[in-house]
From TrEMBL:
Domain of life: Bacteria
Domain Acyl-CoA dehydrogenase/oxidase C-terminal: start-end pairs: 238-386
One Pfam family hit: Acyl-CoA_dh_N
Name of the protein this chain belongs to: Acyl-CoA dehydrogenase
Keyword Acetylation: no
PANTHER family referenced in this protein's UniProt entry, alphabetically: ACYL-COA DEHYDROGENASE, ISOVALERYL-COA DEHYDROGENASE, MITOCHONDRIAL-RELATED
Acyl-CoA oxidase/dehydrogenase middle domain residues: 126-221
Family under the similarity heading: Belongs to the acyl-CoA dehydrogenase family.
Residue span(s) of domain Acyl-CoA dehydrogenase/oxidase N-terminal: 8-115
Cofactors required: FAD
InterPro entries per record: Acyl-CoA_Oxase/DH_mid-dom (IPR006091), Acyl-CoA_Oxase/DH_mid-dom_sf (IPR046373), AcylCo_DH-like_C (IPR036250), AcylCo_DH/oxidase_C (IPR009075), AcylCoA_DH/ox_N (IPR013786), AcylCoA_DH/ox_N_sf (IPR037069), AcylCoA_DH/oxidase_NM_dom_sf (IPR009100)
Keywords: FAD, Flavoprotein, Oxidoreductase
Amino acid sequence: MLDFRLSAKQQEYREFAHQIALEEMRPISLECDRTEQIPESFFWQMQKRFRGGVEGQARQFRQPGERQDALLAMLANEEMAWGDAALATAMPGPGLAAPPILAQGSPEQQEKFLRIYRDGQLHWGALALTEPGIGSDVAGMATTARLEGEEWVIDGHKHYITNGARADLIITFATIDKSMGRAGIRPFVVPKGTPGLVIGRIEAKMGLRASQTTELIFENCRIPKDHLLAGREAGAKGGFKAAMGTLDATRPMVGALAVGICRAAYEGAQAWYQHELPAGYAPYQRREIAEKLEELRQEIQMARLLVWRAAWMADQRISNSKEASMCKAYAGQLVMKVTAEAVRLSSPGEMTETKQFIHKWFRDAKVFDIFEGTAQIQRLVIARRMFPKVSIP
Ligand SMILES: Cc1cc2nc3c(=O)[nH]c(=O)nc-3n(C[C@H](O)[C@H](O)[C@H](O)COP(=O)(O)OP(=O)(O)OC[C@H]3O[C@@H](n4cnc5c(N)ncnc54)[C@H](O)[C@@H]3O)c2cc1C
């Protein structure tokens, strides 16, 4: 049976998340963007309202007997980004560290590494893949890990790591043998405060300014042997591939965040049109604006359906690499279009708060086309699956 409706429980969770976005995020959004700071009271408030994190809270809205963690996460992410995408990416919790630990870690590792996130205190997680010399193509990764007795020794340099300075655990990718290319890359768990882990520059950014993006330097950074997360067996080659598989879970979340900003910008442009449109607009000009808004509304709905499909497939344990990339590529580019149109449409007249928000969303949008794989890379992922016999670099 095909059914596009949300269940009553799902709708309830969506409204729960929307209320938080409205009451906790929107009121501080512009100030956090201006100062590039988030008050600690916001984190505690999130901790209080999302008991057990976004995922923990979602469990209370789950239909018994049904898998719907991904779908509930999508609903929350869209609402959070509607509130403020920078604050959404800075929420306390394991964040991007969780999927690799859950997917690759042994039961003992899962318990050991994720335990702290249940202690009621503020904790974050991060994932460090990107280096100054590598982003999309990780084959040339320069960060190395070598085994010395009972310890892995990590040396290298990562940058643009979301929540890197706050994270209690950083899933760090390093090569154990450069000659193996991608097959030599492994994920390691590096705890905060490990000697040799140096927190570098916090980047000043155009968008998502309140979300911290950090440089990390690893200098003779020693972690216990059992902090290797995947590819533990001798001679294993699949550590990196397996860890990258978690992107199938995280890309729809990024797509959902992009849809949330799209919706915010669309509603902002609509509010401007209804309440702030300067006098003197001819009827044909009004029609043009109304038609453009309707075009955007349709495209936002398309993006949301792509996101929901990828999430639904994840919940049903159906392989969704192609669909996860499709929704990320589409929503990541649409958010740039919608926010740019909102800026264009609302440009006449004096600067109002509505416009300040629209301008912020325009700046926030760009990164959704970059992180978790650019749109070009998503299309390559899709093309490889559509045309498996054609060699695509
Ligand atoms: C705000 C922010 C937060 C981030 N958070 C994290 C994080 O938490 N962890 C992390 O590890 N990284 C993070 N990143 C890094 C991000 O994932 C990378 O910037 C991204 O993967 C692109 O890599 P790159 O910047 O090296 O660009 P490159 O890979 O050098 O790409 C540059 C351009 O070339 C294009 N391109 C590259 N290869 C191809 C190809 N084969 N075919 C066609 N076009 C191609 C790309 O699409 C892009 O347009 C973050 C980045 C930002 C800006």
